Amino acid sequence: MQNKKNQSLRKLMDESELCKEDLKTYLRQMLEIRFFEEKVSELLSRDIIKGASHLYAGQEAVAVGAISAIREDDYITSTHRGHGHCHAHGDMLSKTKEEKQNHLNKMMAELCGKVTGYCKGRGGSMHIANVEKGNLGATGIVGSNIPVATGAGLSIRLRKTDQVVLCFFGDGASNTGAFYESLNMASTWNLPVIYICENNLYGMSVPFSKASKVKNVADKAKAFDMESDIIDGMDVVSVREAIKKAVEKARRGGGPTLIECKTYRYYGHSRGDPRIYRTKEEEELWKQKDPIIKLKTKLLNEEIFNKEEIEDIERNALKSIEISTKFALESPFPRVNDLYKDVYIPIKVTKREIEEETKLRELIKKDKNIRQIYYVDALNEAIYEEMERDNRVFVLGEDVGVYGGAYQVTKGLIQKFGEERIRDTAISEAAIAGAAIGAAMTGLKPIAEIMYIDFSTIAMDQIVNIGAKNRYMFGGKSKIPIVIRTQGGTGRCIAAHHSQSLEALWLHFPGIYVVMPSTPYDAKGLLKTCIRDENPIMFIEHKELYGTKGPVPNFKYTIPLGVADIKKEGQDITIISYSRMVLRCLEASEELLDQGINVEVIDLRTLKPLDIDLIINSVKKTGRVIVVSEGYKTCGFTSELIALINEIAFDYLDAPIVRLAAADVPVPMSEILEKNSIPTKDEIINEAIRIIS
What we know:
This protein is of the alpha/beta class. The chain has 25 helices and 19 strands. The strands form 4 sheets. It has a 7-stranded mixed sheet with strand order 8-7-9-10-12-11-17, sandwiched between helices. Strands 1-2-3-5-4 form a 5-stranded parallel sheet, with helices on both faces. α3 runs parallel beside α4, α4 runs antiparallel to α5 and α14 runs parallel beside α20. The termini are far apart.
């Protein structure tokens, strides 16, 4: 891509590429960013702003030039060094002087941890966002915004609009897996994303030249057959011209572009950085290329503005930062009572919904004429019905299309909904999860399949640090309605990389729900509910359940989240389980009945939210408890469950709680070892007899 570099401003004005007001805006915005960062540096030194803050001074031309080339309905994703992006974007959206000042007020208040900030003080410097207005947020994880931007681009493609996404990242991020996975996905699907690398020469302290054999980040685009360009990131007009061309190409359906802006950060990586990895001479050399001085010089030399006009712009810019600082310092901190607010979008389950679903469960137990279908088919029906009901729902993952999914859950859906809504991806777990999150943040309802739960650890950054945290971190202003379907468990002798039960891992993180159905009826009703919900949900299936059959009504229904099911009533012992272990507990309960022991079997169905009331009521009735899980014993979900019961119902217990879980060994391949690495029916029976005697 060629762009007009170092052209005269007068010529661009004559060609109607720019006007005087544009140039005034660019100068004002860059000055405001510079003064803002200088003030932040001061407040950091006085310990008024807490924590880490990565200053953008020196790179102002990139944010201002790039964002000047997009529309108000376009999107941006930002980085830990994101104040410049946030300001340029928010200023573009602000029409009046009052709105522009309010925008700066919110920015400074956020960095000061005040409730009047953009994210109510929860995100701070590294996580500032305005999702409602198209700023999908900054991130403290290097490169983790790149899959999100790619997902926003996918959302645009599926919604058939002509919006674009600007994805800002640093040179360090260009060496992460998320970068390569995302650019490959964007190139393959021809997505309208402009990837903007702000190459300021250093990651933290390691020079880019020592971190990569490739001389320029832009050269990496060749691997994806993607158009790229290298521009002077210290020249706001050069940046604008290059981004403008890339944006126009993307709007025409021309796909993504990688733009490398050669720039420099004036401050260290963060507070306390001694900058010993670079010389004073190098710093001085780059400051001679200062983007603000460069623009001011051109404006004066070409007599577009005089000295007094420029000084007036500077005075007003400095004044606006002083006002924002005063606002931030006088603003209140968040209320401690709001600590738990906005982690989840509240689930509204009415008493009537619970009663109706309870009646439905009783019906399928009694009516022998209700059809019997496989667990795998129940899941397939759920996805089919929800995709037919809501055109925002789509599926993406490895082999979900023509192949129908590794376990055939999505079989036949591509014939009904086509390749646009049933999307086969490359083997790219991080990009799958991140793209789903970006699509969800921009209005869609993705179902992302991670083939095995063991592989979900590869996508952990996206699921945990972005999907689970963004709503809370961005002040409750973000929705991420994503369902991540995966499966786990033993039973096929495929060893430790394809057989684990890792639900405890996902339960640990606030902001994400975990659902694990045991029957075809539960699988269908719960999956439909999860797809309709507005929260991130990990929907975990078991490979040994796909071939099990059970009654499923031939009419549409849903099952509320957070409602457990008593699969068998009893009064002697409460056995609590979920997923495949429920079937094993039921088998044990039948044999125990022959021995005069009547156990109550509870199927949790959803582990988070958890139906603790039903559990406690059962414990009060029986006084004895066994918890059964296929997850590892140490730090497993059974430990949390026991702790909750002890905290709430200890006085009702007649015996210590028994915990049956998987052995603390990597799942072995050998069949005899695999079978004995998880709780067996005989173990459940023996423990029940022991605690009742």
